Amino acid sequence: MLLPVGNHGGDGDCGAVQLAAEIEELSLGSTGGLGDRLSALPDDILHSILLRLPSTPAAARTCVLSRRWRGIWAQLPEIRFPFPS
């Protein structure tokens, strides 16, 4: 991620403190550090994301991301297994 370079609303240490606060806010996200932004999405959007993966086993591997993702892949409306050509 690229951060803008320049004055961040203050001189000297005040600017550095504000920049550190901005970086911390970006790293914690809008959930305040209690979870991740991706897991906060509705199930329908998570299903859409998983359906873009090449196969059902690939979608199943996402269960290690968080507790919230453990059963999401099993709710997919279609099952796809790659067949060797």
From TrEMBL:
InterPro entries hit by this protein: F-box-like_dom_sf (IPR036047), F-box_dom (IPR001810), FBL15-like (IPR055312)
Pfam entry (one): F-box
F-box domain sequence ranges: 38-76
Protein name: F-box domain-containing protein
